[in-house]
Design goal:
The protein is of the alpha+beta class. It has three domains: 122 residues, eRF1 domain 1 (Translation, Eukaryotic Peptide Chain Release Factor Subunit 1, Chain A), CATH 3.30.960.10; 130 residues, eRF1 domain 2 (Nucleotidyltransferase, domain 5), CATH 3.30.420; 96 residues, Ribosomal protein L30/S12 (60s Ribosomal Protein L30, Chain: A, 2-Layer Sandwich), CATH 3.30.1330.30. It is 42% helix and 23% strand. The protein contains eleven helices and 17 strands. The strands form four sheets. Strands 5, 6, 7, 8, 9 and 10 form a six-stranded mixed sheet that branches. Strand 5 and strand 6 form a beta hairpin. The longest helix has 33 residues. It is globular and about 90 Å long. The protein starts with a helix and ends with a strand. Bound molecules: zinc ion. The site of zinc ion (ZN) has 8 residues, from loops.
């Protein structure tokens, strides 16, 4: 499943005829308490939603959510998923379940459009990657995406064993070594070829190597520069280890790496905003860029929230209260701007990144953006 495409499609839903129910669950059942926490959370939220939604056409949506969540809690489905997002809307015939490998915070929202911020944030944090385990005579290629592990490809070439006995031990040993070396070279070459095909055929942007450092160094020399450039790092790995162990290690590495680059990326955008028109900082300028569909990458401080309005005629967004659009005079309605901005950026093909802590970003009001073109 292409989660980014699903996200973009959901972001196009603006005002559905009946309310849209969006539910995010942490389905990493580390202990029995976690299962109970999710049960209690759902019970309370469903009761509140039923009370508030009487007569608005959400009853069948809530019944569906309840049934699906029950089967998730009983682990009848998606046993590998650690986070699940559910979207339901009777009016649109929408019934969507997205299982992901990273847990969500439990969230329950009934609104006129899907609540997408948690999904957008998560997808940004877990870019897809290819995990490549290599040793002297075998290799395993395991795709890792938002859903979890893809189909593993195993490559093994037979390297002849040591079969000589008796005299000439020294010579035999050295011949054997040379033979192994030659075969290893051919093995590496074959793996490299498979890796190039898989990488370029599937648009793989990140490769995480797994194995012994010495082997990985030797293997890397066989790769063309354009492929080697996509290697973001390596983790330890051994042939007997299961795919889920290797993937777990690689996923940890990727998460850690994304977190590290985050602060620097925000610094760069703030600097850019101060000296050129290629980026904006602060709510006012960002709203303008978002309204024009010019945002390439939005950086939003975690917990950002600000009252505002959206124009029903031209789609302009503004801060505070305004009964009439300041651009076209059309009628407006009140909207929380964090959610409005995120939805609009996703719908126009931009990316959204939430930042945990960043002093500079907090100083400019918690929002900044890199633009597709200068305004
Ligand atoms: Zn307007």
């Amino acid at each position: 499943m292409d989660f980014n495409r699903r996200l973009a499609e959901l972001a196009k839903i603006k005002r559905a005829a009946t309310p849209v129910v969006s539910v995010y669950l942490n389905t990493r059942w580390a202990d029995e308490q976690q299962r109970d926490r999710v049960r209690v959370f759902l019970k309370n939220e469903l009761r509140k939603a039923r009370q508030a939604g009487a007569g608005r056409g959400v009853e069948s949506d809530l019944a569906w959510i309840q049934a699906e969540a029950e089967s998730l809690i009983e682990q009848a489905r998606f046993t590998e998923a650690h986070g699940v997002a559910l979207f339901a809307c009777e009016g649109l015939g929408l019934r969507q379940i997205l299982p992901l490998r990273i847990p969500f915070e439990d969230t329950f929202v009934v609104a006129e459009a899907p609540f997408l911020r948690p999904l957008a944030m998560l997808l940004e944090k877990i870019p897809s990657a290819l995990i490549v385990f290599v040793d002297g005579e075998s290799a395993r290629l395991i795709p890792l995406n938002a859903e979890g592990a893809g189909e593993e490809v195993t490559l093994a070439s037979e390297v002849p064993g040591h079969h000589r006995r008796g005299g000439w031990a020294q010579l035999a040993q050295s011949r054997y070594q040379r033979h192994i070396q030659a075969h290893r070279g051919r093995h590496f070459e074959a793996v490299a070829k498979a890796l190039i095909n898989l990488t370029e055929g599937n648009g793989v942007q990140r490769i995480v190597m797994a194995g012994e450092p010495r082997t990985l160094t030797a293997f890397r020399k066989r790769l063309p520069q354009r492929i080697a450039d996509r290697i973001v790092g390596s983790v330890s790995g051994a042939r007997h280890e299961s795919a889920s162990v290797l993937l777990g290690r690689a996923a940890e590495f990727l998460l850690h790496r994304e977190g590290q680059g985050e602060g620097e990326a925000v610094d760069a955008v703030l600097t850019e905003a101060a000296k050129s028109r290629g980026a904006v900082a602060g709510l006012q300028e960002t709203l303008e860029a978002v309204t024009r569909g010019a945002v390439h990458r939005l950086y939003l401080l975690k917990g950002f929230g600000e009252p505002g309005w959206v124009c029903a005629e031209c789609g302009a967004l503004g801060q505070g209260e305004s009964p009439a659009c300041r651009l076209c005079g059309g009628t407006t309605r009140a909207m929380e701007l964090g959610e409005a901005i995120v939805d609009r950026v996703i719908a126009t093909g931009g990316k959204v990144q939430t930042i945990g802590v960043h002093q500079g970003l907090a100083r400019v009001g918690g929002v900044a953006a890199l633009l597709r073109y200068p305004l």
